[in-house]
Design goal:
Layout lengths: L2 E5 L7 E6 L2 E7 L6 E3 L1 H7 L3 E8 L5 E9 L2 E3 L2 E3 L2 E5 L11 E3 L8 E5 L4 E5 L1
Amino acid sequence: MSRNWLQFAQKGTPVVSVSIGPRRFYALIDTDAQISMVAPDVAIRLGLPNIGLQRMIGITGEVASVPAVQMPPVAFGNTALASCRAAVLDVRKLGSKIEIILGVNAFANRRLQFDFKDERIYILG
């Protein structure tokens, strides 16, 4: 089983640098999020196709329908995650570097291991 890792880009928080095509972005790895999310300006810059609406339920229980896009493969090192659905939301309010949130749907058929001591995320499989 192959094992690749990503170094945290933000001390103590699982924010990592990833690439989509030739561009680099900061992504928060959030295993509590069922779906990935992308900042509106990033979706526009990448020309991501709108694929309808995504129902989102916030931590306060608030329900909203937001645009959904098809994210292209997200790469790091020699590994690429498959294309996945993403909700378009203002994720930047979570932190100045965060442009994308990679939820569990981005890691289909892969296992993650968080090492907060060494500030790494291992992607297994």
